[in-house]
Amino acid sequence: MEKREQASKLTIEYIRVKLIPKEIGYRVNESTEIGTLDEHGVLTVKDDGCEGCHKLNEIPAAIEWGRQINLFTLHLEE
Fold first, then answer.
1. Are 76 and 56 in contact, with CB atoms under 8 Å apart?
2. DSSP character at residue 54
3. What are residue 13's DSSP bridge partners?
4. Taking the CA of residue 7 as centre, how many other CA atoms within 13 Å lie in the half-sphere pointing to its CB?
5. Is the dihedral of CA 27, 22, 45, 74 positive or negative?
6. Cβ 21 vs Cβ 37: under 8 Å
7. Greatest CA span in the chain, whole angstroms?
8. Who has greater pLDDT, 77 or 37?
9. What whole-number distance in Å separates Cα of residue 36 and Cα of residue 44?
10. What is the pLDDT at residue 31?
11. Strand, helix or coil at 12?
C-alpha cells in the first residue's frame, strides 16, 4: 500500500491601509506559529505534511496581530 503525502500552502495577506505589522501569530488546526509579513503584507506558509487534514473539510484557524485576533474557518480546495 502506498502512503500519500499531504502538503498544504497558506497565504496570509494584511489588507488594511494602516502600517503593516512586522510579525503575526497564526494558528491552523492545532499548530500555532509566528511569522513575518513581507513589505507587501504577505506571508506564505508551506507545510510538507498536514497529518489528518485531508480528512477534514473545515479547519479552525486564527490570526493575531497587535491586540487584534481574527477567528475563522478554512475550507480545503481539491
1. yes
2. G
3. 42
4. 4
5. positive
6. yes
7. 52
8. 37
9. 10
10. 81
11. strand
Residues 5-55 pLDDT 10s: 556 778 888 888 778 888 999 998 778 899 999 989 999 987 655 566 656
- Write out pLDDT tens, residues 16-29: 877 888 899 999 87
Instruction: Determine the residue type at 21.
Output: P
Long-range contacts of range 35-40, CB-CB < 8 Å, 24 or more positions apart? Answer: 37/12
Question: Which CA distances in Å does 51 have to 4, 24, 37, 46, 64?
Answer: 11, 24, 26, 14, 24
**Helix, strand, coil percentages for the chain (3-state, nearest 5):** 5, 50, 45
- Name the grid cell of 25: 501569530
Cell numbers at residue 2, please?
A: 502506498
